[in-house]
Amino acid sequence: MAKLNFGGVEENVVTREEFPLAKAVETMKDETIAVIGYGVQGPGQALNLKENGFNVIVGQRKESKTWDKAVADGWVPGETLFEIEEACAKGTVIQYLLSDAAQIKMWDTVKKHLTTGKTLYFSHGFGVTYKEKTGIVPPADIDVILVAPKGSGTSLRRLFLEGRGLNSSFAIYQDATGKAKDKVVSLGIGVGSGYLFETDFYREVSSDLTGERGTLMGAIQGIFRAQYEVLRENGHSPSEAFNETVEEATQSLYPLIAENGMDWMFANCSTTAQRGALDWMGPFYEATKPVFAKLYKSVLDGEEAQKSIDSNSQPDYREKLEVELKALEESEMWQAGATVRKLRPENA
C-alpha cells in the first residue's frame, strides 16, 4: 500500500503502480467472475473486467430490457450470459450488483450457491450493514468484499474508455480463505479504479447515503432550484437563470474544481467573484451544516435505510418513481436545461 498525506492525516491507498493490472489478472486467473445484475453498475464493471483480461460472465433475468442490453453489449446467451441462478452456480466470485431492493428479493436464490471458498462481492455496503432489515447474512466460509466506485457505472465505463480511472473504496467484511485482500484489490484494479482507499462496509454505506442525499444529488438539486427560482421571480429569463445557476457551474467552474481544487478555482476567478464567494460561503455553510447533521443522524439511526427498503419494496414503486422523475424533468428549470444543452457548440 502507498501512504498519502491529507493535510497531516495519513491514509493507506492502493494505486496501479504498486498493484499493476498484470498482477491483478494473474491473481484472478482461476476465478470465474459472475456479475449479477446489469443495471447501474453491472455494465461498466463487467465490460471493464472483460476488456482487462478477466474471466467474466453475466447473470440477468431473461426477457428484460437489461438482458437485451447485455446482448447488445456483446454478452452471448449460453456462453457468457445466463439466468441469475445459473450464473451464480458457475461463478467463483459473485459480484452482487442488483439494486438494494432486488438483492433482498434474490438473496435466498443467491445464497444457496455461495459454497465454501467462494467470494461474494458488493459495490454498496447496504445489504450486509443493515442485515437485520435485509436478511442478507453471508455464510461464514466465504470471502465477503466490497469495491465501491465513486461514481455511476456510466462514468466508470466512460473514464475507462478514455484511459483514465474512477477512484473507488474497498473493504473486507469476511476473509475466510486468507486471500480476500488480494482478491478485492485485484477486482478494484480490474473494474477500472484510479486508486483504491480502504474503508469498511458501515462507513461506505453511511458516507454513500449521506452523499447521495447531500452534495451529490439531493442538496445540489435543492440549491439549483432555489437560485433559479429567485432569479426567475426577479425578472430574469429562463435562459439567463439556467446559465447562471447550472450551465456555468457544470461546464466551466466544476471542471476547474475537478482539475485543480476549489482554492485554484477561487484564485482564477474575477476579484468581484472572489470577494462575493468568500463573503457568502460562511452564511451558506451556517445554513446547511445543521441540515447535513440532521441527514447524517437519519442515516446513523437507520431511518434512511428503512425508508429505502419500505419504498423500494412496494409493488408500484417503479410507477410512483416515474411520476416523481417526470415532474423533475418537466420543471421549467430542467426544460430550460434541455434547450440550453442542445445549443452547446458540440450539439449544434
Can you tell me the CATH class of the largest domain? Alpha Beta
The proportion of residues in beta strands is 5-15%
Q: Order of strands in the sheet with the most strands?
A: 1-2-10-9-8-7-6-3-4-5
> The CATH topology of the largest domain is what?
Rossmann fold
Largest sheet descriptor: 10 strands, mixed
Rough outline: globular
CATH superfamily of the largest domain: NAD(P)-binding Rossmann-like Domain
Q: Tell me what the CATH architecture of the largest domain is.
A: 3-Layer(aba) Sandwich
Number of H- or I-type helical stretches: 17
Distance between the termini: 47 Å
Low-pLDDT segments, ≥5 res? none
Q: What is the domain total for the residues?
A: 2
Query: What is the element string, with H for helices and E for strands?
Result: EEHEHEHEHEHEHHEHEHEHHHHHHHH
The helix/strand class is alpha/beta
Give the % helix: 55-70%
Number of strands: 10
Compute the CA-based radius of gyration: 22 Å
Mean pLDDT: 94
Kindly describe this structure.
By secondary structure, this protein is an alpha/beta fold. The chain has two domains: 2-198, NAD(P)-binding Rossmann-like Domain (Rossmann fold, 3-Layer(aba) Sandwich); 212-347, N-(1-d-carboxylethyl)-l-norvaline Dehydrogenase, domain 2 (Orthogonal Bundle), CATH 1.10.1040.10. Helix content is 56%, strand content 14%. The chain has helices at residues 21-27, 42-51, 65-72, 84-90, 100-111, 126-129, 131-134, 153-161, 180-190, 201-213, 218-233, 238-260, 262-267, 271-300, 303-312, 317-330, 332-342; strands at residues 2-6, 9-15, 33-36, 56-59, 81-82, 93-96, 119-122, 143-149, 168-174, 195-198. It has a ten-stranded mixed beta sheet, with helices on both faces. The longest helix has 30 residues, at 271-300. The radius of gyration is 22 Å and the shape is globular. The termini are far apart.
